[in-house]
Write a structure and sequence with these properties.
By secondary structure, the chain is mainly beta. It has a single domain (about 5-330), classed as Methylamine Dehydrogenase, Chain H (7 Propeller), CATH 2.130.10.10. It contains one helix and 31 strands. It is globular. It starts with a helix and ends with a strand.
Length: about 325
């Protein structure tokens, strides 16, 4: 199977503009477009494709997207400015551990790092320049992981000065990851793959796999309670750390791309055609939430410990919630 073919399949699943359909109107959203201009032009346009979002402290937010786009807000999303990413490769994942240290990953194995909140981004040496990195997570300024196409799992123990490819050789695209500490983590990908490690990635146990469905997102509330989401609105739930997974009734047939736990028992999943689904009982039951001003894909979600949430996606879409996901304000294109 040619890599080029797989890449276009991935793009087709994740980032094409889908038909416009609505959801049940059980949520609220208002338009509050910010001033986003710089001398070089607007920071956000209707043509922007945003793939992931990360937050620091004190209102700092970073969003990455198509053609090396990185935008930053220092006031929780009211105003945005563009940062120089030093690449034209699309950036698909971003993660900050504080207001200074952050990493972004994307096409052609791209790995970027900043030590000053994005005022200056620098490329790090990638061991997989021919692959696509889809997600990155750091648990400290030193230790992090990234996943991508062709079974790529990378780890660094020195802040990205050196990245090592971890041993996993199956030809499967790995779309998302969730680590709790230096040892315990999960990875999700195509063929309904769910991998689990208890030794920081030295070895992996396949908890699920072998089916046609693709999983694009995985999130855990704690080492026992987790959710994975994927094609056709699929939602999988575990309450025993992944030893067993069961399929939960989903309120949507649209593909779900990412999921995150937040608050006491809530989680939110997002996907194509503006799909947003929420749970308030740790994933046992879900309901649809409408974002009336957004009917194309969403692929990035992040909540702070204070209950402030961010959703990003196609057409410059950025949504902010200040009440743990009960209502959403539309910022962006």
């Amino acid at each position: 199977m040619e890599k080029g073919w797989k890449w276009w399949v991935l793009v087709g699943l994740l980032y094409l503009v889908f038909l416009n359909v609505g959801c049940d109107k059980s949520g609220k959203a208002v338009n509050n477009s910010p001033t986003t201009s710089k001398e070089s032009g607007p920071a956000i346009t209707f043509g922007d494709k945003f793939y992931d979002v990360s937050v620091g402290n004190k209102g700092n937010v970073w969003v990455v997207g198509y053609f090396g786009n990185i935008i930053h807000s220092s006031d929780g999303g009211k105003h945005w400015s563009r940062q120089d990413s030093v690449t034209s490769n699309s950036l698909l994942g971003v993660d900050f551990v504080n207001d200074r240290e952050g990493w972004a990953v994307g096409e052609s194995g791209t790995i970027l790092h900043t030590k000053d909140g994005g005022m200056k981004w620098e490329k790090q040496q990638s061991p997989v320049p021919n692959e696509i990195l889809l997600k990155v997570q750091f648990i400290s300024e030193r230790e992090g992981w990234a996943v991508g196409t062709y079974g790529v799992i990378l780890r660094t123990l020195d802040g990205g000065a050196h990245w090592d490819r971890l041993p996993y050789k199956e030809d499967v695209t790995l779309n998302d990851l969730c680590f709790f500490n230096s040892s315990v983590g999960w990875v999700a990908g195509e063929f309904e793959t769910i991998l689990h490690t208890t030794d920081g990635g030295k070895t992996w146990v396949k908890q699920r796999g072998g089916k046609d469905a693709k999983l694009f997102g995985i999130g855990f509330k704690d080492p026992l309670h987790g959710v994975a989401v994927g094609t056709s609105g699929k939602i999988l739930l575990t309450e025993d750390g992944g030893r067993s997974w069961k399929e939960i009734k989903s309120p949507t047939k649209d593909t779900l791309l990412k999921v995150q736990f937040h608050g006491q028992s809530q989680a939110i999943a997002i996907g194509v055609r503006g799909a947003v689904v929420q749970t308030e009982d740790n994933g046992k039951s879900w309901r649809s939430v409408s974002l009336p001003q957004h009917y194309t894909w969403l692929s990035g979600v992040k909540f702070t410990k204070e209950g402030i949430g961010y959703l990003v996606g196609n057409r410059g879409g950025i949504f902010v919630s200040n009440d743990n996901g009960k209502s959403w304000i539309h910022f962006g294109g």
